[in-house]
Write a structure and sequence with these properties.
By secondary structure, the protein is of the alpha+beta class. The chain has a single domain, classed as Beta Complex (Metal Binding Protein, Guanine Nucleotide Exchange Factor, Chain A), CATH 2.170.150.20. 19% of the residues lie in helices and 26% in strands. The strands form 2 sheets. It has a 6-stranded antiparallel β-sheet with strand order 3-4-8-7-6-5. It has a 3-stranded antiparallel β-sheet with strand order 2-1-9, with no helix packed on it. The longest helix is centred in the N-terminal third of the chain and has 13 residues. 25% of the residues are buried.
């Protein structure tokens, strides 16, 4: 399509429509909404299935220092390791990298300014957003809702 003859408003509308349709490719996870509500606590359901956000500094995982793995509470997929975690001071568990192929991404316009949102690649559950203010080596901060992570300590 030729965008050169569109008004500014028409162009912005087209861009927003195109970008908001760039949802994660998520595998079909055979659970109904009713199944999810039965499996998850209400606050987990709100974040994982409705893309909500937990209150900052409310997760016990903020202070978790042990070695281990961080799994999706919805499907037990391994998303992060303790070696990837760092203290961002933001009030949410933060990681500078993730397990390859464990996350999928989409653009989120809920705050008007586009943000890079990520979901579990296995069940499609919402986990958080990626920001470009993390430490080396990636320079990224995967800001995760702790309520939708399950920590498994290394034995």
């Amino acid at each position: 399509m030729d965008y050169t003859n569109l008004s500014r408003r028409e162009f912005i509308t087209k861009v927003v429509i195109l970008m908001s349709s760039s949802f994660y490719s998520g595998k079909v996870f055979a659970m109904t909404d009713k199944d999810w509500k039965e499996k998850l606590r209400p606050e987990e359901y709100d974040v994982l299935r409705k893309e909500g956000t937990e209150r900052p500094n409310s997760s016990i995982l903020n202070n978790e220092k042990r070695e281990g793995d961080y799994l999706c509470v919805g499907c037990d997929s391994k998303l992060f390791t303790s070696e990837m975690k760092f203290d961002s001071g933001t009030g949410w568990p933060s990681f500078f990298d993730y397990i390859p192929d464990s996350l999928e991404f989409k653009t989120d316009f809920k705050m008007i300014i586009p943000r890079n949102e990520y979901h579990c690649a296995e069940c499609g559950g919402h986990h958080g957003h990626v920001f470009k203010d993390g430490p080396k080596p990636t320079g990224l901060r995967y800001c995760n809702n702790g309520i939708v992570l399950k920590f498994i300590p290394k034995v």
